[in-house]
Amino acid sequence: MIVASLFIGIGLITLYDVTTYSDSDSVVFPTFVAYALIFCSVLVIIASWLRPSQDNGFGSGDWWRRLLLVATMLACGFLMPVSGFLPATAIAFAGGLIAARHEGWDARSAVVFAASGVFIMAGFYSLFRFALGVPLP
After folding, report:
1. pLDDT over 70, % of the chain
2. Which of 14, 36, 91, 121 has the smallest set of CB atoms within 10 Å of its CB?
3. Is the pTM of this model over 0.85?
4. Which has the closest alpha carbon to 114: 128, 129, 94, 96?
């Protein structure tokens, strides 16, 4: 509930911040994400009130996976202005994939996941750059 409350605060700060944007097209995506963040966080708080859990939402899992996921997301955010969209998202995709895959790795699965990552990143790049007209670094 604490993290969901923090996310509500971050969403409200984002909504306040977009009021200072001069370009009206730049407001759409952050506003949508902020509203989605607030809405989902409110749902999490309501669900935790209706069905409280003893493990406080953390459960039993590998902490290194959680830390790797957060570290790669932060690295993606900080590196994107410097390295560009595709290298930063490649880091995020690889880190998230390593954190999420519990099975072992073999050559076939590595090739399949790498190829799917290339297609997914190219798809998102095309969506943002061409369909939505978002200027990417």
Report:
1. 94
2. 36
3. no
4. 94
Q: What pLDDT, on the 0 to 100 scale, is given for residue 101?
A: 86
Q: Which two tokens stand for residue 116?
A: 């799917």
- Which pair of tokens denotes residue 16? 């306040």
- Residue 83 host element (H or E): helix 63-83
Backbone CA torsion sign across 135, 121, 36, 44: negative
Long-range contact list for 38-41, CB < 8 A, 24+ apart? 38/7, 38/8, 38/11, 38/12, 40/7, 41/4, 41/5, 41/7, 41/8, 41/11
- The ranges of the chain with pLDDT < 50 are none
Tokens 């899992």 sit at which residue?
61
Task: Determine contact, residues 133/28, Cβ cutoff 8 Å.
Answer: no
What would the pLDDT profile of 46-70 be if each residue is shown by its tens digit?
998 888 776 665 666 788 888 999 9
